[in-house]
Description:
Elements lengths: L10 E2 L4 E6 L2 E6 L34 H23 L4 H30 L6 H48 L5 H27 L4 H7 L25 E2 L12 H10 L12 E2 L8 E3 L5 H6 L11 H14 L3 E6 L3 E6 L4 H10 L5 H14 L3 H12 L2 H13 L9 H18 L4 H12 L4 H13 L25 H19 L10 H7 L2 E2 L7 H4 L5 E6 L6 H8 L3 E6 L5 E7 L2 H8 L8 E4 L11 E2 L32 E2 L1 E2 L14 E7 L5 E8 L7 E4 L10 E10 L5 E15 L5 E14 L11 E4 L1 H7 L2 E3 L3 E4 L2 E5 L1 H5 L39 H4 L8 H16 L3 E2 L8 E6 L14 E6 L14 H6 L3 H16 L4 E3 L9 E6 L9 E5 L1 H6 L12 H11 L3 E6 L7 E4 L3 E5 L2 E5 L9 H18 L6 H7 L1 E5 L2 E6 L1 H17 L10 E4 L4 H8 L1
Parallel strand pairs: 16-20, 18-23, 19-22, 29-34, 31-35
Antiparallel strand pairs: 1-2, 2-3, 4-6, 5-6, 7-8, 9-11, 10-12, 10-13, 11-12, 14-15, 17-18, 17-21, 19-23, 20-21, 21-22, 24-25, 25-26, 27-28, 28-29, 30-36, 31-32, 33-38, 33-39, 35-36, 37-38
Keywords: Coiled coil
InterPro entries: DNA/RNA_pol_sf
Amino acid sequence: MKDGDLSTLLYNNKTNTMVTYFSGQAVTLESGNCDNADARNIMATPASIPVPSTLSGATPFEDDPANDALVISELSKTRQEYVEKANAFEIEEELRQELRKARRYRGRLRGQLSELHEQMDNLVKDDDETRKALKELERREVDLRQALKESMMYVVELERRDVELMRLDVRSSVSGLGSVVGRRSARSSVSAHSMNKANLEDIERQEGTGSPRDVLIDKEIGPEDSVSACVHHHHQHHQAPIPFTRVSNHPPSTRVPPGVAAAAACSNEVPSDGRWARRVHQGGPDGQAHTYRPFCDGATIGKLTVLDLKESFRFAQHCKHLEELLYESGAGEFKVTPSLGQAFHPFGHLRHACIQKLLASLQKCPAVLERAQSAFSTYGNEWSRIVEACMSEFSRRSVLSLEMEKRMRALKFGGVREVDNYIKDCVCAFEIYRQVFPHDRPQHANFVRRILAQVPKNIAMAVVKRCRDFAPESATEWETCVPVHSLDGSTNHTIVEFLKEECRLHEEADRLVAPSGGPKSDSVRLLEASGGQSGGQSSVNPREWVKKYAVVCGITGKGCRDRSRVEKLGQADGILARRDKFKRPYYLLGYHDKGKCESRRNEFPKDLYRSWIWDDNYKPSLPKTLVRMNDELSVEGAGLGRPSVVPSASSSSSSINPVVEDSISAVAGADSPPNEVVLRVSLKLGSGEVHSSSCLVDTGAGGNYLIVSDIERCRSLGVVEIPPVSVSLADGTVSRILYGVCCSIAVSDCDGTLACAFRDCQLRALQCPGPLGSEDRWQVLAGRDLINSWGLVLYGTRRAFINGKCVFESNSLKEVPDSPDDVVCRVVESPSSIALASRGIASSSGLESPPSATSEQQAVLCPVASEIEDAHISSVLKALTRKEWVAIPGTKGAYHCRVRELLPCEIVDVPGLQSHVCEIRVPSIPRVPAKGRSYSKSLYSRLSPTLQEEYAALVEGYLSSKWWVETSLVVTPSPPAQIFLVPPPSQSKKSRLVIDFRELNKVLPRAGAGGESPMLFHVLGLLRTESRETTLLCDCRSAFYKIRLRNFILALESALGRYVSTRMGFGVVFGPCGLNGGLSQLVGEARVADFGGLDLLYMVLVLIFLFVDDLALSGPTLPTVMKFKVLLILLLRVGFDAQQRKVHALAVESREDELRSALQ
C-alpha cells in the first residue's frame, strides 16, 4: 500500500474535502462546497479541523433515534473500511510503516486536542465575543475528538493485522507450511471482518439507547487493546486465572458467536496469554460478557510492591494480602479443594516467581523466612505446601492466643492526649482476637472489658452508656451491642470510636481550665540549685550581690519576659537579672527596708509572677529526690519544720517539684497513726531527765526524728539548730526541718526489761499535729541509722528482736500463738557458718577444667542423685530436647535457643556429669567493614608489668578452657572485637578482661535486656517479703560461656594474638536474654517437674527466683534442700556449675540444726 492509501482516514462526503498524510504533514488535496468558508484551506491544526464524515450532518449531543441509527450505520461502514484496508496488507514491513504513520498522526491529533482545551481554559470574559468563540471551539473539539476516534480505529485494525501476520510467520516457520500463508491470511481476513462486525453489533445491544458518542468513547483503545507488544505462546498445561467479567444489563449467554468459532477453527490454536487482554465475546440475543486476562510474567511479579512481614504472628494476614495481589496481577487463581477449601494456586510458569516474591517479603522476619526456605527446599515450587508449613508454626491458635495475651497485658492508657496510641494497640490486639475467637461472645465481652479497664472510670462509664444506647431491648450484654472496631470504616458506632470521642471531649474540657505555663515555671529550688546564669546585664555572683541589701526578693514567672514592668512593679533598690538552666529569666530584687519589700511583693499579679525571699543559709545536699506536693510550695525561709506557703494561684496545677533530702513512709499529714512496728523506748535528754516514749520503726526513712506538736514548747529539751533538711512525708507533703535534739535512747523488750542500753543520737524535730505529736508526750521515729545501731531483726510486721530479745509482737500473734514465722524481712547472719557437703572436680586426661585462680575456687557443688532422681532428671532433659528451637523472649523472634545432647567430639565443661548443652541460633548478618585501628596492643603497652602478667594469665585461662581458640586467619562478617584489661578498683577486687563488641552489636538484631528476667529490686523485694524459714543462694560460674552459638563465630583480638570463639561472650547484645532463654527453660522445668512425688509440696511451698545467672530458693527446710539438690544436678547435666564459695544458706535459728542435717 502507498502513502496515499491513508487518505481515506479523513474523508468528508458532504464537503468533498480530503486531507492526506504525506511525510508527516497534513495537506489539503481537494476542496469543494463547504458550509464554512474558512474550510476551503483546511489544515490539520486546532484552528481548522476537517469535519468527520460520521458527524457532519448532526450534532453529537442530539438524542434522535433516527439520527442515532444513521450515525451507527456510518460508523459500521467506516470501521468496515478500516478492516478491509488493514487486511489488504500482506508484507509486514509495509504494514508497520503504515502503522508508524498512523500512530504519529494519532499523536498529533491528541496534541491538537490538548491545545484546544488550553485555548478554552484561557477564555475568561463573559461577553458575546467570548461566548461565540467558545461555541466555535466546542464545535472544533467535537470534530477533533471524532477524528481522533477514527484514527484510533485505524490504528487498532493495523495492530490486529500486524499480530496476525506475526502468528502466521511463526506458525509457517515451525510447521514448514509456508505455502499456505496466503490461504490462511485470507481466512483470517474474513474471520477478522466477522469479529469486528460482531463487536459493533454487541456494542449496539449493550449500550441500548445510549448516544453514539458514548458508544465510541466506551470502545476507545485501552491497555487491553494494545497488541504491539510481544506475544507469549500458550502453555496448555497452565491454568488461566479467574476471568474478570464486566457486568452487563442482561444475563450472559454461553453461545459462542460464529465469527469467534470460525476464527478459532481457522487458526487451529488455543488463545494466547499475551500482553493484550484476550477478549472473548459470549454473545446472544439477550446480552454478552467480556472476559479479560491481564498480562503477567516474572518481571511483572518482581515489580510488585509488597510490604515486608515484621512480626511472625501476622503471617496469615500477610499471605492473604499477597495472594490477593498476585491474583489481581494475573499470576494465579483461587480454587476450591476438599482439603484446603478456597486456596490460591499460581500458574505453572509463574510458580517460582510467586514463591520468590513471598520469600523476599519475609526478609525482616528471620524465623518465618527460615521456615519458608526449609519448606521450599523440601517441597519445591509448591505454594500451598510452603504456606501451610508456615501457617502451622506461626499462625496456629495457641501461638496467636499467647501473642494476644501478651499484647493485652501490655496495654497502658497514657492519658486522653495519648488515646490514639492506645486505640492503635487495642486494634492490633483485636486483629489477633478475630483469628483466635472469631465467634465467641463471652470472649468478646471479656476483650471489651479488658480494654475499658485501663481507662479512667468516668470515661469507661461514658463508653458503656453509649453502648447501651445501641442495645436492643432484649439485650443483656452491652459489650456485644456494637463492634470493637470497624474494619472497612462503614460505621462509627464502635467501642474504639466511642472511646476516642470521650477522650477528645475530656481533652477539650481540660484545655478550658488548664492554666498557662508549665509546672516548672516557678520552681524556686531549681533556680537556686542550678546556680543560674547571667541574663546579660550582670555577671556578678548572686551570693555576693545579696549581701548589699537587708532583704532580697526573687521574682519568676511568665511575666518576667518584660523587664521594664518588673522594675516598675518592684521599685527595688537594686535588681539582678538571671536565667535558669532552661534559659527562662528571673530577677532578684534588693531592698534596704523589709517593710518596703513586703509591700512591693503584693503588687505583683499572682497569675503572672511568683515570689520568694532569698535565704543564703540554704545549702542543698546530695543525693536529692524530686517529689510533688499537693498544692503548696516549700521554699527557703521556712522555719521550725513547718511547710511555708508561697502566694500563688488557687489552682493545684501551679505546684512545683521541691528538692527533698529524706522520705518518711510511716508518717503522713493525717491525724491517724499508722499501723506499724512500735517499740517501747526511754528518752534521756541532756539534763539527765528520762522520759518514757514510743518509737515508730520506719525502714524507708534514712534519719531519726522526734515527732512533736509544737517546736516552741520543746525549747526545754535542748533544741539546737541543724543544717536545713527538706523531708517528704507519706502523703506527698514536704516539711522543712531546721532544729534537732541531742539525746540518748534505750529500748525495752515486751516484758519491760532492758533489751538495748542507752545509745547517743541526734533526733530531727519534725512537727506533726495530731495524735503522733500530742502535747503530753513525745514520739520517736527510728530510721535506718537507729535500726542498724540496735541490730534490730524484723520478721515482717509480726515480730522484732534485739540481741535475741523480743521487743515487739503483733496482737494477731497473741490471738494465734502457734502461727509460724514464715516471713523474714531482715536476716542477721550467724557467726558460725553452715558447712555444705561438696566435692571438687579434678582435671581428667584430655579435658581442661575452666580457668580459675586457686584450687579452692575450682571446687564446685556436685550432689549425688539417687536412681529415682536421675530418672526424673533424664525425663526432663528429653522433654527439653524434643522442643527443638524456641524463640527467646525479648528478641522478637530473632534469636532462638534449644537444649540438645552433647556430641562426642565437643568440649565438655563439667567432665563426668555433663550430657547436654544449651545452644543459641544467631541470624546471619551483613559484612561489617573495619573502622579504625586495633587498640588492644596500645592499651596493653600502658599496663604495668604486674597487670601485663595478669592479662596473659587471664587470656591463657580462656585458651586452656577451649572457650577461645587461637588462629592466624580470621574470616568473619565483622571485624575482630578488641580485648583489654580493666584494673581492679581496690585490692579486694580482681582484674577483668573486657571485650568490645560495639561494632558487632550495631548489625545484630536488637534484643531486650534480659528478656523476661525481673528487675533486681523485684527479686530483693520478694525475698524480703516472701522468704520462708530457709533460703539457699547460688551463682552459676561463667554462665555466659556455657552457652554455645550455632552457625556463628566471634572474632577476637588481644595484644597477644587473635582468637575465634563459638561461645556466647560477655558483651554481645543478645547475651542477657540468651542466658535467660537457656536457664529459664531449665528452671521452669524444674519448677513444675514431679521429682519423687513431691511436686505439690514443691510448687506450693518452695519459691524459686532466677536473676540472670543467680538462683535463690526459699521455703521449708527439707523441701527446699531437696529442690535445690535436684536443680543443681539438672544444671550440671547441661554444663552449668556452681562454685562452693558462691553457695550460701540462710535459716532462722530454730531451723539451723534441721538444715545442717539435711545438707549432710
